[in-house]
């Protein structure tokens, strides 16, 4: 079954993509939730027109995302955490904390786009990955210090 995605679906594709899915997945999940429409000939033509109109906007968004990624790479976020005398932190650092710290610096990033490394157990400097746009990913540095 071919469907046209009306929203970005993680692991499947992005808005306006024509993808082939299993019948049950399309009929029982994607279409009822408004994530996709059936890819008929008329819908495909309409989709092509939408893609043409969106191409200009897409290029502008891509340039803005690339500029934001370059700015984010040079950013160092400092986060105060509770830690023991040996430097081991209590609890863990989450993407919510990182998103709030970035937002306080004036860099708006969704928490879902931030990927925190698993080995954050002690004070120090670490790198977190951020997916800014479809295929634009970057890393930023965050430092943990004892409060």
Nutshell version of this structure?
With 147 residues, the protein is of the alpha+beta class. It is 35% helix and 27% strand.
Number of helices: 3
Number of domains: 2
- Could you name the ranges where pLDDT drops below 50 across 5 or more consecutive residues? none
Distance between the termini: 56 Å
Q: Could you give the order of strands across the largest sheet?
A: 4-7-6-5
Mean pLDDT: 91
Structural class: alpha+beta
What is the architecture of the largest domain at the second tier of CATH? Roll
CATH topology descriptor of the largest domain: Ribosomal Protein L9, domain 2
Large-scale geometry: elongated
Largest sheet: 4 strands, mixed
**Top CATH class of the largest domain:** Alpha Beta
The total strand number stands at 7
Q: What is the name of the CATH superfamily of the largest domain? A: Ribosomal protein L9, C-terminal domain
Please trace the helix and strand order, writing H or E for each element. Answer: EEHEHEHEEE
Percent in strands: 25-35%
- Please tell me how large the radius of gyration is: 20 Å
- Level of helix content? 25-40%
Task: Describe it.
- The chain is built from three helices and seven strands; from the N terminus they run ββαβαβαβββ.
- The strands form two sheets. A four-stranded mixed beta sheet has the order 4-7-6-5. Strands 2-1-3 form a three-stranded antiparallel beta sheet, with helices on one face.
- It has helices at 23-30, 41-73, 95-104, and strands at residues 2-5, 18-20, 36-38, 76-81, 114-115, 124-133, 136-146.
- The mean pLDDT is 91.
- The protein is elongated.
- It has 147 residues and is α+β, with helices and mostly antiparallel strands.
- It folds into two domains: 2-61, Ribosomal protein L9, N-terminal domain (Ribosomal Protein L9, domain 1, 3-Layer(aba) Sandwich), CATH 3.40.5; 69-146, Ribosomal protein L9, C-terminal domain (Ribosomal Protein L9, domain 2), CATH 3.10.430.
């Amino acid at each position: 079954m071919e469907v046209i995605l009306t929203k970005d679906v993680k692991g499947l594709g992005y808005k306006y993509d024509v993808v082939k899915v299993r019948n049950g997945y399309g009929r029982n999940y994607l279409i009822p939730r408004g994530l996709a429409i059936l890819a008929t000939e008329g819908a495909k033509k309409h989709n092509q027109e939408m893609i043409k109109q969106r191409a200009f906007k897409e290029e502008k968004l891509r340039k803005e995302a690339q500029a934001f990624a370059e700015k984010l790479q040079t950013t160092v976020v400092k986060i105060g955490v509770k830690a023991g005398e040996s430097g081991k932190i209590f609890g863990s650092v989450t993407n919510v904390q990182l998103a709030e710290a970035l937002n306080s610096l004036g860099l708006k990033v969704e928490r879902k786009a931030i990927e925190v490394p698993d080995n954050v157990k002690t004070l120090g400097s670490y790198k977190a990955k951020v997916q800014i746009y479809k295929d634009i990913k970057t890393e930023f540095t965050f430092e943990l210090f004892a409060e």
